[in-house]
Fold this sequence. Notes:
- This protein has helices at residues 2-20, 45-53, 67-84, 100-107, 113-119, 126-129, 131-140, 151-160, 170-173, 188-196, 205-228, 250-257, and strands spanning 34-37, 57-62, 88-96, 143-148, 234-240, 263-271, 287-292.
- With 299 residues, the chain is of the alpha/beta class.
- It has one domain: Rossmann fold (3-Layer(aba) Sandwich).
- The longest helix is centred in the last third of the chain and has 24 residues, at 205-228.
- The termini are far apart.
Amino acid sequence: MRxxxxxxxxxxxxxxxxxxxxxAPPDDARPAYRLFTAEGxxxxxxxxxxxxxxxxxxxxxxxxxxxxxxxxxLQLARELAERKAGQLVLGLEMFERDVQPLVExxxxxxxxxxxxxxxxxxxxxxxxxxxxxxxxxxxxKLRVVGTNVPRRYAQQVAKGSLTALDALPTAEKAWLxxxxxxxxxxxxxxxxxxxxxxxxxxHAAGVQNIIQAQALKDATMxxxxxxxxxxxxxLLHVNxxxxxDNHDGIxxxxxxxxxxxxVLTISTVTQAQLGRLxxxxxxxxxxxxxxxxxxxxxx
Length: 299
């Protein structure tokens, strides 16, 4: 009798906890995204944000036409702004260094939206994908930094190698990473470019030039990321995933200049299933945002 009474008491005590336990997701759930660690373990947005807030630089590698990545960038910027309390800086690949004065004027309200969009060469998907970030920055009084090299210089390098930059006026060199720029053709991203263009980066001059143009972008973004943050600040940088996947590209140049800098990365990938991280996406970044491969694109 005492044993039966003890069982009943235990069940009655557990009932409130059972009643409030979260229900398991239905078998037919269709999640819009999943987050994983580098090792493929599921992770919540909150735990990821807490880890990222302890970094000095976060490289958010997006697919430029993915709406989920753009939405999550906005959520992460809002969360980190709260966690860092006035110490968050927003960096964007999408604006080039020669329009930085316009970015700053718009950010503090000295330039109207129409003039800014006419003069700052925003990307075609600016309205849907990046304007929300700039509006958040204005509301939260976050500094915004355009980090990319002016496209015309990358085009010159793609045609004639990095030596094409030597003749630039000093004023224009200020929009680039300091010259000369070191290029490591063994980085996974650059090896992938070599394969994509059907050449061996160690011997094909044309492929070398294309990789050098990519390296110019990576080095320039890394340079202005470092230049734009002060001690104690966190710089959240939004860039194409190919600029930071496998911790190379921008990350490689950051480590080259400042080995002790605490850098964490996010990569955006698409998969047919979201239950686990596909093998080829393991260790691609510190955190991996997985989006269904049939997700609607912004262009």
